[in-house]
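pipeline/complex-builder :: batch 7 item 3
reading input block
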Amino acid sequence: MSTSAAVQPSYGTRSFALLPSVGKVARVVLTYGVLVLFALAMIMPFVFAVANSFKELPDIAANPMRLTPGVRADGTPYSWTLQGYERALNTQQINFPRAIFNSFFVAIVVTVMRVLFNSLAGYALARIRFPGRGIAFAALVGTLMVPGIVLLIPRYLILRQLGWIDTYWALLVPYFADAFGIFLMKQFFESIPREIEEAAEIDGASRFRMFFVIILPMAIPALTAMAIFAFQGTWNDFQGPLIALNLNRDLYTLPLALAFLRGVTGDAIQWDLMLAGSVITTLPMAVIFFIFQRFFIEGVSYTGLKG
Amino acid sequence: MKKSLRFLALATALALIAVALAPSAQAAQTVNLVLMGWSSSPSENERLQKIVDDWNAANPDIQVTLNQVPDYDTTLQKALASGEPPDVFYVDSFRFLDLVRADALMPIGDRLTDIDDFYPALRNAFTANGQFYCPPKDFSTLALQINTEMFEAAGLSAPTTWEEMRAAAEKLTKDGVFGVVVPADFARWIAFLYGAGGSVTDDEFTKMTINSPEAEAALKFYTDLYLDGFAKTPADLGVGWPGEAFGKGLVAMAFEGNWVEPYLKDQFPDLKYKAVELPAGPAGKATMAFTVCYGVPKKAKNPDAAIKFVDYLTGAEGMKAWTDLGLAMPTRASLRKGWLEKFPNLEPYLNGAEYARKWQFVPGFQAVLDKVNEQLSLVMSGNQTVKGALAEIERVGNEVLASR
């Protein structure tokens, strides 16, 4: 810009007039530059994982940072391959397609039930007066402070007492409600003006009708946030299914299947297998994220404000 | 689901009544066992499954379910805590003493076939309080992997002593390649510690003996390779572990266990290399043995059946079926010859059985291991002296041993 101004001095005044907009452009370029940089830093590992999952094992080992097949030492090129996927899907001990189904089934059921139970409980704590409400709420919040690992063994013992080990019940029922979700919903319901309910009550609505027809629709932002967290948390949960399942490998969810694939190969990871498994595990979550991106972000900001 | 459960309960109840009513002669029936181990590579998982399937076909009275699990430690902890441990389970020699102390294992050594055939070092790894608890299912040792292409180009032969190893490392450090990869990892340095004639603690684990001239020589040799520029750590080379550095040709030598062999074969098929025994130190040859046994729990419901099964798995026939995969090595000396005929290139690893030391410490020793790793890094980064490092390890180690 300054050189062209020096060559053609007649544009001097004009370029002066343009200066503020140049600054603006520079700022936009800089902002987006930084954003793009960070976006790349975030997305690249995933891109590499996907690209490498379609490469031959020696190729992954030799050229992990290439997005396309590389070349062998003797000059012949490597080719694209589905071998990793074939190996993952055909692993003898693990029924991978079934694990995909299990993950979806468990995540969907848990999400639906959690939305229902958390909002019911949250509403009760927010609006209904009953003896012990304060204590119940305090106990609930108190459980948030207990680190999950402490509950590992007790949880297993309870599931065993119930005879739920190696059944879907153990993957589902314990997750139908969670303290954080109830807390979130309680806070939300308290922010809804009581007058709305009073008006409904005068019109003769029962409490359940009031809850489902009037209150719940107003809580959709909070419910979406909770649903997303529930789905994501259940989808990624490793320890829960690990405790719940003993011999029944047919009920493995994707995180368990993936860990099984990895085995104790230690450092000598079979990358084609692992990357294919990882892509299968991550892809549904990624797709869901892209579809519900807006809700995700709203959800995060919502919990940030209220939670 | 619920319906089928109810039906199952009913069926079980009926079956129980039927069993109770039946004459006692018919009560002798199938014993069901669960063998729990960790999931390993697919080829190993499948091989073990096949061995179990073959056993089940041949032994209708003892039916075994193989349960290979991810995250083994958590799963085992859970199973032991519930009071219903699996009938047979893997025990890593490193965890063995923890389990003995928790009184979780039944000593079954006396009831196995020909236990003198197991290499003494490996039997020793599963012996506590004078009792041989569980038979080693297989083992791995450390050896030196050398890039034969680089060695031939430099006119070098495989090093057999520390001096030769250092000289080779020096000569091969050129053109962006380094002589050897040395991780700041006690599980590797300890082989050199033993090669120098040093030790970590006394035999009874009452006090540390690591602050010795021998240990000093070993630590100096190991860290000098690095400080003099003939060696790099995996992190320096931007790789995850020594095997990867070696596979990529970033170094001419590495010292890893035989698990590196299938890895190199699969992922670096063009690499020209061979394994040789670890070079001998001032006190002679030394290496580390990493081994796992088949444990039977103290609370076993069917100890006789479990022991019979374990005896098969670790007997000549079962162990041959398992180790013929060519990954882990047979723990019975009698299988050595047949195995080497199939896998002659793995001989240096198997030779280690004669002089290998076990990777095993007392419960609570993890803090000391962490300290050693930390001090190794400090010495290699020039922030600690060899003497200072050993004194610090000794101090922390004695604290840990005193608090036992």
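note: The first strand of chain B starts at residue 31 and ends at 38.
queue -> next item
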